[in-house]
């Protein structure tokens, strides 16, 4: 297993390099250093001299990939790409264009993102699996039919509807929780209840339908008949035997997203005023802040790679036939 | 220098420490009481949050319970402030905070319109003296060519004190307490108020001079360095010196007191002098901006210590000053809070105002000590809907009107008059409108041979002028304002919006090329007039009179989003009505900027927010030497007219009065004749406020208005209780809906679990 993990980590290096290169090319294909400087300095009284000064101070005056004026290795190292992208591998994210420390900003925003995403993820998973197993239990009845119909209807409704409708119903009509906002400590429960509830409901239709399909595949297997023949209750058959044997397709879709939960959700965080990471990348793209964009893309890629590794490892835990070598 | 020492005396904006356990106990009692009384059998985890919330008198109150009933203003901000350093900040969103903290020498009178400058921390309005090149003082600036220097002496009020700050704290020996901090000392420090030692001192003239020197700081990139260097050439020299110093010692603090700035000097502890090159009457307006506010050298030195920047402990994050408020919370992603400065100077509410101010109750607090509000909390809102809902619940004291909630908030009458909707009126909400000091325009690139002045001969240029006039008449700005702005704007007749000197009201103020005067109001000339002008331009019915080729114009725009399509389609329809073919060249902002800089655009939309209420700050947008292409100025149309440029230079230095008005009128006439822009609109700002918020007068230019506002917390509390009564029936409806599924499911489950493997037939056989 360790050899496998080591090998996967080595594979990660060229992948991350490629992602970095691609991000760099895309970003600077659309935004020249002059554009970035103009965006930071404002359009009102900015002169070419001011732009040049800003670029020189922030290191944006270097050539992209090859510095003909450099000496020796500096021809390759004293470039914009090395200066702005490769330092990511040492987890040195640097400073945003507005001067704020990026690592500090990410640390500060990660907590609120996780506070919404983690309970939403766990409760969504739990609710969708339970509902899917219940629908499997009620298969070929009117309850199953209407359950699936409602799931399809829920899938068809936009997340925005759930958010706006939820805020209207729970906060305005029932006056139970604030419309939006965020606070630490005990007060957190007041603010997170509604986004978590809406997050769970918004994902319930799709999740339930997918897991129902997975469980229906399993329900006609021989081991299920054997379990029933042993006299086990249907509850035990479904939640102990069917669920365990259906875990591989579930884990494939679920484990990979766990590390990315840190990155938050743009829509949820915007509507519920959660100061998380959800909008950090979008805001950075809008303000042409390459330092933030490259950092977030790098972290996103690294977390995705970690997610895939965890998925592989989780297979070995639920299915003894799987070996990583 | 007078020093004050006050350790941990200023715990502004924090909940009393003893409040928390009481609050928690109360909530837990309520939680269990809820469970018991309603005999709810639900998972405790799922019900915990709801039960916690349902216990307080207003469980949907987003603000901390400890703040209930206090004299706190609640508002929201949409975009995070990027810079709060007074030398860098130049954005409206940042001004909301910075202008309450930093006090420049001058300010605008809160109530008077047109906007009028008055002393803030200056003891009186500074007088400008003019000197000729030979050093002789001139009686006035009647002949600008003779003025070589303008000298402004600013005397500041004695006894003005800074808000508490650790940079002023002194130890037992009288030495600065926090000028030798280590990384360990900064552990757990997140804001200047986390330091136990806090101090204050009197405002000195050198603090203003220090800040002016900061404009030239190579690491700060002040947006006005280049502009100010034209009048204060010493800034450029200082910038070069400081740049060399910064290169030699990249991480060292630059003590600006050690460097002289030519043209700026301290005369005594409360007086400083600024010597400007030539004439620049608009400099007075700059003296009302934080660029020219005070920064104490101690504070600059304090923030330059190692470990500060990585903790975001900078003047850019934690501005400080002598203003009525000080920043006590800075989380630009969630919440910013200002608390009253305990050392704020004596300041009184104005007793004079505009003609309607007394009737509107804006003079009721005449002479009372400012500020009225103890604390102002600004929460970050990214979406209009939750923001609006919280305003309607009474949790924000004021709000703007977005297009999503426009119909709910206001009604438009048949004559275009705007009134509050019945629902808003019933809640005691008040509507305030004001014309923003801004201009939006459809610009023609005057370098273009077809629509501009780039034609081969005089006839071609005249043809282009008539074409521009034809388009000015044909494009129905009134319809645009009605459809796309919900009426929130007025058609522009010239660059100067109403409320700024030079704008004319009524018949005298209309653009006669585009409008006639009928029934006591301006009436846009018809499409027939536009077609006539087009034919005179050599394009009858949109076709070249000689070759028959269709007239094709290119519109360069950044409008690429879904919502922008409707605007572009509307524009295309307007051009088609005239017979002109309209081609959209959509691009991103960067490429658009590039096109404008290179003079490659043909027709484009642009806007400008005036920095100060002077016609110079609007007319300069068409000043020839400030052309965008070539000079990278702000004249995006690249318009050049010798007479206009000459008049601009004259108008710039004239004081407000009949002579200046005459010059302005002539300049406006030239622009209407040449039509380098289609004058589009001046936006109208709509703002709503609850009845408990007093003394709020709209006026975008007056940015330090927080200190004048007053709240009635008791009235707010009553309204919140009234507006947030829960309606429970939908909860019962939801439970009934769930029961429809749960009961048959439970029956099925029970029957299934009780059933045997035998069928009824099997049982019969057995």
Task: State the gist of this model.
With 325 residues, chain A is mainly α.
Report the mean per-residue pLDDT of chain B as an integer: 88
Main sheet summary of chain A: none
- Radius of gyration of chain B from CA coordinates: 32 Å
How many distinct beta strands of chain A? 0
**Oligomeric state as shown:** heterodimer
Considering residues with a beta carbon less than 8 A from a beta carbon on another chain, report the largest interface and each chain's count: A-B, 70 and 69 residues
The domain count of chain B comes to 3
DSSP summary: helix tally of chain B: 23
Percentage of residues in strands of chain B = 15-25%
- Note poorly predicted spans of chain A: none
CATH level-4 homologous superfamily of the largest domain in chain B: Dipeptide-binding Protein, Domain 1
Helix content of chain A: 55-70%
N-C termini distance of chain A: 6 Å
What's the β-strand tally of chain B? 27
Largest sheet of chain B: 8 strands, mixed
Question: What helical percentage do the residues of chain B reach?
Answer: 25-40%
Q: Figure out the total of helices of chain A.
A: 15
- Average predicted confidence as pLDDT of chain A: 90
Low-pLDDT runs of 5+ residues of chain B are 1-55
What CATH architecture label of the largest domain in chain B applies? Alpha-Beta Complex
Class derived from helix and strand content of chain A: mainly alpha
């Amino acid at each position: 297993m360790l050899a496998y993990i080591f090998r996967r980590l080595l594979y990660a290096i060229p992948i991350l390099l490629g992602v970095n290169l691609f991000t760099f090319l895309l970003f600077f294909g659309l935004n020249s250093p002059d554009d970035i400087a103009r965006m930071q300095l404002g359009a009102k009284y900015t002169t070419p001299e001011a732009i040049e000064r800003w670029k020189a101070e922030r290191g944006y005056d270097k050539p992209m990939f090859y510095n003909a004026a450099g000496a020796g290795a500096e021809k390759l190292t004293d470039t914009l790409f090395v200066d702005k992208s490769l330092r990511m591998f040492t987890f040195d994210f640097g400073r945003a264009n507005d001067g704020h420390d990026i690592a500090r900003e990410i640390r500060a925003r990660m907590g609120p993102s996780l506070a919404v995403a983690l309970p939403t993820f766990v409760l969504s998973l739990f609710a969708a699996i339970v509902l899917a197993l219940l629908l499997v239990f009620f298969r070929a009845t009117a309850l199953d039919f209407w359950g699936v119909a409602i799931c399809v209807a829920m899938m068809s409704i936009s997340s925005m509807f759930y958010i706006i409708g939820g805020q209207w119903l729970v906060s305005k009509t029932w006056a139970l929780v604030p419309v939006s906002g965020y606070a630490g400590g005990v007060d957190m429960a007041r603010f997170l209840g509604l986004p978590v509830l809406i997050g769970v409901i918004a994902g319930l239709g799709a999740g339930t339908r997918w897991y129902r399909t997975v469980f229906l595949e399993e329900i006609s297997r021989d081991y299920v008949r054997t379990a029933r023949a042993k006299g086990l209750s249907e509850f035990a058959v479904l939640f102990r035997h069917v669920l365990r044997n259906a875990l591989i397709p579930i884990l494939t879709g679920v484990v990979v997203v766990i590390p990315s939960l840190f990155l938050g959700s743009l829509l949820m965080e915007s509507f519920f005023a959660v100061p998380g990471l959800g909008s950090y990348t979008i805001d950075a793209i809008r303000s042409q802040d390459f330092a933030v964009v490259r950092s977030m893309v790098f972290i996103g890629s690294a977390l995705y790679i970690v997610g895939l590794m965890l998925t592989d490892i989780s297979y070995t835990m639920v299915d003894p036939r799987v070996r990583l070598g | 220098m007078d020093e004050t020492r006050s350790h941990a005396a200023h715990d502004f904006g924090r909940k009393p420490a003893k409040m928390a356990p009481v609050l928690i106990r109360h909530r837990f009692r309520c939680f269990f009481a809820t469970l018991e009384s309603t005999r709810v059998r639900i998972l405790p985890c799922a019900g915990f949050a709801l039960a916690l919330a349902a216990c307080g008198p207003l469980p949907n109150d987003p603000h901390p319970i400890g703040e209930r009933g206090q004299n706190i203003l609640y508002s929201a901000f949409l975009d995070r402030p990027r810079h709060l350093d007074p030398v860098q900040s130049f954005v409206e969103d940042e001004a909301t905070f910075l202008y309450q903290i930093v006090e420049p020498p001058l300010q605008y009178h809160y109530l008077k319109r047109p906007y009028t400058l008055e002393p803030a921390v200056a003891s009186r309005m500074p007088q400008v003296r003019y000197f000729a090149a030979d050093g002789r003082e001139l009686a006035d600036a009647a002949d600008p060519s003779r003025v070589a220097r303008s000298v402004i002496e600013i005397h500041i009020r004695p006894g003005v004190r800074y808000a508490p700050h650790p940079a002023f704290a002194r130890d037992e020996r009288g030495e600065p307490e926090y000028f030798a901090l280590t990384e360990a000392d900064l552990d757990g420090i997140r804001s200047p108020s986390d330091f136990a030692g806090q101090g204050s001192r009197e405002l000195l003239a050198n603090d203003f001079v220090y800040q002016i020197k900061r404009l030239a700081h190579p690491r700060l990139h002040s947006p006005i360095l280049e502009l100010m260097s034209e009048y204060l050439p010493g800034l450029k020299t200082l910038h070069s010196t400081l740049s060399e110093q910064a290169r030699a010692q990249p991480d060292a603090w630059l003590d600006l007191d050690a460097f002289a700035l030519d043209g700026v000097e301290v005369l005594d502890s409360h007086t400083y002098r600024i010597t400007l090159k030539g004439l620049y009457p608009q400099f007075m307006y700059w003296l009302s901006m934080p660029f020219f506010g005070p920064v104490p050298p101690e504070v600059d030195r304090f923030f330059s210590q190692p470990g500060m920047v990585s903790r975001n402990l900078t003047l850019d994050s934690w501005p400080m000053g002598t203003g009525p408020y000080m920043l006590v919370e800075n989380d630009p992603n969630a919440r910013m809070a200002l608390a009253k400065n305990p050392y704020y100077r004596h300041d009184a509410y104005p007793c004079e105002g505009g003609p309607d101010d007394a009737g509107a109750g804006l003079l009721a607090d005449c002479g009372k000590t400012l500020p009225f509000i103890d604390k102002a909390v600004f929460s970050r809102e990214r979406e209009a809907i939750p923001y609006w809902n919280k305003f309607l619940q009474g949790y924000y004291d004021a709000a703007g009107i977005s297009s999503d909630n426009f119909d709910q908030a206001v009604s438009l009458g048949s004559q275009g008059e705007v009134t509050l909707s019945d629902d808003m009126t019933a809640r005691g909400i008040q509507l305030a409108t004001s014309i923003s000091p801004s201009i939006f325009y459809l610009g023609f690139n005057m370098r273009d041979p077809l629509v501009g002045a780039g034609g081969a001969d005089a006839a071609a240029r005249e043809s282009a002028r008539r074409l521009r006039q034809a388009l000015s008449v044909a494009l129905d700005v009134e319809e645009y304002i009605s459809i796309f702005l919900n009426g929130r704007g007025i058609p522009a007749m010239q660059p100067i919006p109403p409320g700024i000197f030079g704008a004319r009201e009524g018949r005298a103020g209309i653009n006669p090329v585009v409008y006639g005067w009928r029934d006591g109001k301006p009436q846009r000339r018809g499409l027939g007039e536009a077609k006539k002008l087009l034919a005179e331009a050599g394009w009858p019915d949109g076709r070249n009179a000689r070759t028959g080729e269709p007239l094709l114009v290119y519109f360069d725009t950044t409008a690429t989003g879904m919502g922008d399509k409707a605007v572009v389609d509307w524009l295309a329809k307007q051009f088609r009505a005239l017979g002109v073919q309209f081609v959209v060249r959509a691009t991103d902002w960067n490429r658009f900027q590039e096109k404008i800089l290179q003079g490659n655009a043909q027709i484009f939309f642009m806007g400008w927010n005036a920095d100060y209420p002077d016609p110079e700050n609007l007319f300069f947008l068409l000043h020839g030497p400030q052309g965008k292409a070539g000079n990278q100025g702000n004249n995006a149309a690249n318009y050049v007219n010798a007479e206009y440029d000459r008049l601009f230079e004259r108008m710039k230095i004239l004081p407000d009065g009949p002579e200046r008005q005459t010059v302005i009128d002539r300049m406006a006439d030239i622009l209407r004749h040449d039509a380098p822009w289609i004058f589009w609109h001046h936006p109208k700002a709509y703002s709503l406020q609850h009845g408990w918020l007093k003394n709020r007068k709209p006026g975008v230019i007056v940015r330090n208005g927080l200190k004048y506002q007053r709240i009635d917390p008791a009235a707010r509390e009553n309204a919140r209780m009234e507006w947030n009564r829960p309606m429970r029936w939908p909860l019962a409806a939801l439970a009934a809906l769930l029961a429809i599924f749960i009961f048959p499911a439970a029956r099925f489950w029970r029957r299934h679990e009780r059933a045997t493997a035998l069928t009824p037939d099997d049982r019969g056989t057995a």
